[in-house]
Amino acid sequence: MPAWIRSxxxxxxxxLSPRAPADxxxxxxxxxxxxxxxxxxxxxxxxxxxxxxAAMAQQAARLPAGRPCSLYLHxxxxxxxxxxxxxxxxxxxxxxxxxxxxxxxxxxxxxxxxEHRREADALDVTLxxxxxxxxxxCFDEFHVHDIGDAMLxxxxxxxxxxxxxxxxxxxxxxxxxxxxxxxxxxRFEPVxxxxxxxxxxxxxxxxxxxxALPDAGRQQRFTQGHxxxxxxxxxxxxxxxxxxxxxxxxxxxxxxxxxxVRDERSVVFDFASxxxxxxxxxxxxxxxxxxxxxxxxxxxxxxxxxxxxxxxxINLVDVLYxxxxxxxxxxxxxxxxxxxxxxxxxxxxxxxxxxxxxxGPHT
Length: 363
Description:
The structure is a single chain. The strands form 2 sheets. Strands 7-8-9-10-11-6-12 form a 7-stranded mixed sheet. The chain has a 5-stranded parallel sheet with strand order 2-3-4-1-5. By secondary structure, it is α/β, with parallel strands linked by helices. A hairpin with a 2-residue loop joins strand 7 and strand 8 (255-263). The protein has helices spanning 8-15, 24-41, 47-62, 81-91, 102-115, 122-131, 147-162, 189-198, 233-239, 271-275, 281-290, 307-322, 346-353, and strands at residues 70-74, 97-101, 136-140, 166-171, 199-203, 226-228, 246-252, 255-263, 266-270, 293-299, 327-331, 357-359. It comes from Pseudomonas ulcerans. Keywords: ATP-binding, Cell cycle, Cell division, Nucleotide-binding. This is Cell division protein ZapE.
């Protein structure tokens, strides 16, 4: 579009420049942005989504004057939380901002605090490096199951609010549903109170599971991947995955992981080697930088695995989905029979893996 044509998005960016006063027109621009986005993708906005968009628009109008109220969005999987977050992020144009999957941010936070552990305030120095002049921070898929992470979260939220950073957070859980383990939940109450006092909490409801729509993953590389069972040589040959893979030992954050590589950008892991060993999100993030195409073989019934292995698999799928990496997942049985288990976040994993193209012995 020629520069002299004043598009709605360009006008929105101009209104949201740091020097601009609060402008009620930004409200209309944000709502129009989402209406156009939904129409282009063939979506009908639910009442819950429309309430969230109205709240986003209201807070966006307050951003230039530094008076917005942060937002916490929660709801079942597939209700459009990430779609809303991404739309809001893109609509803000050139405003200093960061959009991060919570796994990614928290792994880098831990790493930075270790590197700056000799500083008087390692958290503050780490946030300087991670966020710079960021004014809007979007966290997708916020959840917490580890008490160590929970204790750090109180400090993190206080530090972010002290910096006047606008937070937009999505989660499958309402604040009171975070860290449900009764052994630890009471110790997480300070974070819950902080969220409820400093953020507007909104549920993204509706009957439609948008991930179940036929065209939901049309532009995602992850959803162009496959779930294959039982993974015979003939099936692999048919899909073009019969290229021999060489055994390697990968050095990852002072760990050694056994894998196979088809080429310098394609890696094959056994489920046992990547999920039953003491791997972590920071390892997956490093491996994502090295390899574009992923194969995970030998998926068992998760219900037979330890809670730790289930959680690692959930985290790995989250990272692959967020970074939009194509995945070939090979199991012993149909996908629906392989994703049992007791970890709460498996609902999200089932929804994401359900978007893969499934191929069985008679397909």
